[in-house]
Amino acid sequence: MPKIAVIYKSKYGATRTYAKWISDKLHADLFEADNISFQNLNNYEVIIFAGSLYASKLTVYKSFKKFYNKLNKFENKKIYCVIVGNANPKYKEYYEDAINKNFKSKEKENITFYFLRGTIDFSKLKIHHALMMLMLRKILASKNEQTEDDKYFLENYGKKIDYLNKNSISDLVSDVKNFLKELE
User: Which of 2, 70, 83, 133 is at 20 to 30 A from 76, Cα to Cα?
Assistant: First the structure.
């Protein structure tokens, strides 16, 4: 059986939930990003990094960077990156901007990216994240034209907003399975 590793960094739990779902579906080994070494990853054919976005910064990027140069030297390894954010994945420009801010051109060439929606529980936010959400609320409220997502965020500001969807991992799971079939 091919070896698959899912490495995640989660602040409030949404990314951890997706990582667990992906790991279960692919029978993959699951690692928290701060608790893994390169030696652990050397034997894997597929490595999936999962992290969340905060002010366009990807939580798992430091771990990714730590391993990327070493991993890229090995043939037949496939690297995926799952980015969990609050924006709707259909707004590709938001996620493309985040990718461009976090990854170098050479890195982007060798990674397949997937975008999933997370969750916000305002009662659990640390002060700096709560302030970021307050600023976002002000920005959205001042827009002349608001998207449906903008309106939903404004109407539910201060409440728990949960976009987690187990079915949203299906494209990634299919992609990984197809890659592994090609190796056979």
Answer: 83
